[in-house]
């Protein structure tokens, strides 16, 4: 029992009466209890009623990469907080210095770590850096920021201006100027009938650059694998061409690794699957596996040097993240990395990723409502369709029923929802990197049962 209380009925009512939950229409709680997660161990979680579930989405939002119940991370946080809980980011701390050193050994070509406390905030830092570079070095030009349809970069007004998921941005405008969309690269929803689809999708980015004017574009911001927009793995040739285009027009490349970072795709970072060299990399969720709040904006030395000009009192990056100074984050992140290394979790992610893809492909042969299966490492999606021949998307309400049926079978998996008008139809899977073959089979067995229950 939790040390805070053994009265879970009181907790349920306190939650209903006082908590404003993320991403939830609270009208539903007038007739049903909120689900309170009270315990986690490994890949399993338990709610206030004692029901046990396999967590196939790592904390609901792709975060708890090394699983629940890691005493060594909790102890690292406890020990550090007793020693020193906080110091403003304008100064240094022992865990902040040591984690940055360790992190950069996994990111050749990058050399500076700026700490913050959420993915949205880390991405906002990049946008501010690019705008400051534009103001100081380009006379206000090269300030436009390109983002991709279906990608998501955060919940602030600035990051929503770069949101490729229109339903997430609806009702929150007007947004800042200078954010421009480029086409998505989902070949299953092909926009061009060509043989080399990846290269063609990248060329579409160049077309936007030429339309806007290369001297006005400062940054291209992309997820390595689109996450909440449908688990989209870019086609062959895409990333190499993107890199060429950015170099051709002197455009900085920002890879948003908030979801993919720290092993999710089987490499430390998703971009490392494609042999490219970004100028910025942001990360958050898996950095400390949810045990403490931390995010990072990592840059090249070339970017960093542009903020060192003693002759201009405003030349430095005039920004602060209050809780980027909390030492719990880097202390937890150091131990999180040690676990990933010592337990061989990158190799396990590759092996279990192959297993979940094989299982999902087998389900696609059995269930005609699965139109496409895609993924990288322990990050997979199954797009549901009402008609496989026409690729008509399954209605969001029907996909929600599948998720609910999965929970009835003891597995929590996710879906795209309230994001893409008409295309909230992809089931999402991202179990912790510690998943075993039995875990993977249990997850896909639950999917099989849920699809049968809903569609026959």
TrEMBL record:
Source domain of life: Bacteria
Example of a GO MF term: transaminase activity
Cofactor(s) for this UniProt protein: pyridoxal 5'-phosphate
Keywords: Aminotransferase, Pyridoxal phosphate, Transferase
CDD domains: OAT_like (cd00610)
SUPFAM superfamilies according to UniProt: PLP-dependent transferases (SSF53383)
InterPro entries assigned to the protein according to its UniProt record, in alphabetical order: Aminotrans_3, Aminotrans_3_PPA_site, PyrdxlP-dep_Trfase, PyrdxlP-dep_Trfase_major, PyrdxlP-dep_Trfase_small
Family indicated by similarity: Belongs to the class-III pyridoxal-phosphate-dependent aminotransferase family.
PANTHER family listed in its UniProt record: AMINOTRANSFERASE (PTHR43094), AMINOTRANSFERASE CLASS-III (PTHR43094:SF1)
Name of the protein: Aminotransferase class III-fold pyridoxal phosphate-dependent enzyme
Lineage: Bacteria, Pseudomonadati, Pseudomonadota, Alphaproteobacteria, Rhodobacterales
């Amino acid at each position: 029992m939790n040390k805070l209380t053994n009265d879970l009925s009181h907790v349920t009512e306190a939650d209903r009466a006082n908590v404003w939950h993320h991403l939830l229409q609270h009208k539903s709680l007038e007739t049903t209890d909120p689900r309170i997660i009270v315990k986690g161990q490994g890949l399993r979680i338990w709610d206030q009623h004692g029901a046990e579930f396999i967590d196939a989405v790592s904390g609901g939002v792709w975060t708890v990469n090394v699983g629940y119940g890691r005493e060594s991370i909790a102890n690292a946080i406890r020990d550090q907080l007793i020693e020193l809980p906080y110091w403003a980011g304008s100064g240094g701390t022992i865990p902040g210095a040591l984690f940055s050193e360790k992190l950069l050994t996994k990111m050749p070509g990058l050399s500076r770590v700026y700490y913050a406390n959420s993915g949205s905030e880390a991405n906002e830092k990049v946008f501010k850096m690019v705008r400051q570079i534009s103001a100081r070095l380009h006379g206000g030009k090269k300030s436009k920021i390109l983002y991709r349809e279906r990608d998501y970069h955060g919940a602030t007004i600035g990051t929503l201006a770069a949101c490729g998921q229109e339903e997430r941005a609806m009702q929150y405008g007007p947004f800042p100027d200078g954010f421009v969309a480029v086409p998505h690269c989902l070949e299953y929803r092909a926009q061009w009938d060509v043989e080399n689809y990846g290269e063609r999708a990248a060329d579409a980015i160049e077309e936007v650059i030429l339309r806007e004017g290369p001297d006005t574009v400062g940054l291209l911001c992309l997820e390595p694998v689109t996450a909440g927009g449908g688990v989209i793995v870019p086609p062959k040739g895409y990333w190499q061409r993107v890199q060429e285009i950015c170099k051709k027009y002197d455009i900085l490349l920002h890879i948003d690794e908030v979801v993919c970072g720290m092993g999710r795709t089987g490499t430390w970072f998703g971009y490392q699957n494609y042999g490219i060299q970004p100028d910025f990399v942001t990360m958050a969720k898996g950095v400390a596996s949810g045990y403490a709040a931390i995010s990072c904006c990592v840059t090249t030395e070339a970017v960093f040097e542009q903020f060192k000009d003693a002759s201009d009192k405003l030349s430095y990056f005039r920004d602060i993240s209050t809780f980027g100074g909390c030492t719990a984050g880097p202390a937890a992140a150091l131990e999180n990395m040690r676990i990933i290394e010592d337990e061989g979790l990158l190799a396990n992610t590759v092996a279990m990723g192959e297993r979940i893809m094989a299982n999902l492909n087998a389900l696609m042969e059995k269930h005609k409502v699965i139109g496409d299966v895609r993924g990288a490492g322990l990050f997979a999606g199954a797009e549901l369709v009402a008609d496989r021949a026409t690729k008509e998307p399954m209605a969001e309400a029907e996909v929600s029923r599948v998720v609910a049926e999965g929970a009835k079978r003891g597995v929590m998996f996710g879906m795209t929802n309230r994001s893409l008008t008409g295309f909230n139809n992809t089931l999402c899977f991202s179990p912790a990197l510690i998943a075993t073959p039995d875990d993977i089979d249990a997850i896909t067995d639950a999917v099989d049962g849920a699809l049968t229950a809903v569609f026959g």
